[in-house]
């Protein structure tokens, strides 16, 4: 390809293909990096069959495990300059694109396991043990947390959209601080049931009472009806008229970014590394409810966020101290990964620049 910088013509922008699927956390990481690049994006939505559970060593670069429609969409995509995927299940599709378009830069978010041949950049968080191999594998890039879509502009836009709705519910901006509460749920490695939810709600309610704060809360798809009901019951008993709880099961617009955009303090449950990373990307104080073992990946991330000064553990001592305001440099892992991709683009004469 002729380098347009030598012709005096406008430089074409590289084209980015993003592979997404049904896992919102993975999608946020891949799309966050793609959006940080600021180049044109084509999104290919992957859906799977039961065969996606097979090891990637078996799936290889075939369409095994992809639905018929996803396989057709993948094989119909025009040659991208960069393709980005997140999570093990999407890796065979990414490697398939790389086999078709060898000049393409293949970017994998999170360690996919083997085979990883053909991947040009693999971004892994520091809490993943594979990060220790970064000195031996030049493709590995280590981030502190999970890349995501949180940016000052997105937060400002979401805050502007949601502020009137919060105000209509009596939760608008004013002299009283607002505590944002992001609730996950049970995962493969750890349960989060109604009693856990009641413990969380009591801590948040006690902290809110110390500051006469209002509570803006949302659950997630993993929370479930019993957890949601437990949260509501405690808040109704302890902070009547001073809480707002969104239930994603009821549908409607998701207030997640709106809460991130207006909260003075953000509380997250410790089951989700994506939620902790996104909260710590706002620059707002973060409190994490620890619900995992000390050796878990989640706990390692939490310790890193504590060391950064972004977060504190949510417990009785934290509530007693009444902390809701502190400063720290927000995470910006998506921009860090994007910067490395730009370096790969500059080193690759086959990519549009």
TrEMBL record:
InterPro entries in the cross-refs: Elm1-like
Protein name, as recorded: Nucleoside-diphosphate sugar epimerase
Family matches, as Pfam families: Mito_fiss_Elm1
Domain of life: Bacteria
């Amino acid at each position: 390809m002729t380098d347009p910088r030598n012709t005096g013509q406008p430089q074409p922008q590289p084209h980015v293909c993003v592979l997404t699927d049904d896992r919102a956390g993975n999608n946020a990481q891949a799309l966050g990096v793609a959006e940080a690049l600021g180049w044109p994006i084509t999104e290919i939505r992957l859906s799977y069959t039961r065969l996606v559970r097979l090891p990637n060593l078996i799936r290889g670069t075939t369409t095994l495990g992809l639905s018929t429609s996803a396989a057709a969409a993948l094989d119909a995509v025009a040659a991208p300059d960069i393709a980005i995927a997140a999570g093990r299940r999407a890796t065979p599709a990414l490697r398939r694109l790389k086999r078709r378009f060898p000049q393409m830069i293949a970017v994998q978010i999170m360690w996919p396991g083997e085979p990883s041949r053909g991947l040009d950049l693999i971004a892994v968080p520091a809490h993943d043990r594979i990060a220790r191999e970064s000195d031996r594998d030049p493709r590995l890039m280590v981030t502190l947390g999970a890349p995501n879509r949180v940016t000052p502009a997105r937060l400002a836009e979401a805050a502007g959209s949601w502020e009137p709705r919060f105000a209509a519910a009596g939760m608008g901006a004013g002299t009283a601080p607002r505590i944002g509460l992001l609730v996950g749920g049970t995962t493969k490695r750890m349960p989060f049931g109604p009693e856990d939810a009641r413990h969380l709600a009591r801590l948040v309610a006690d902290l809110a009472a110390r500051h006469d704060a209002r509570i803006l809360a949302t659950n997630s798809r993993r929370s479930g009806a019993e957890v949601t009901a437990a949260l509501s019951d405690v808040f109704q008993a302890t902070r009547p008229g001073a809480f707002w709880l969104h239930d994603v099961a009821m549908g409607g617009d998701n207030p997640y970014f709106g809460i991130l955009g207006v909260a003075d303090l953000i509380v997250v449950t410790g089951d989700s590394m994506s939620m902790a990373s996104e909260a710590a990307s706002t620059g707002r104080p973060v409190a994490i409810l620890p619900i995992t073992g000390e050796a878990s990946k989640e706990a390692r991330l939490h310790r890193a966020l504590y060391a950064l000064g972004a977060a504190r553990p949510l417990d009785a001592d934290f509530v007693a101290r009444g902390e809701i305001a502190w400063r720290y440099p927000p995470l910006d892992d998506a921009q860090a990964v994007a910067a490395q991709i730009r370096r790969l683009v500059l080193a690759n004469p086959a990519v549009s620049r």
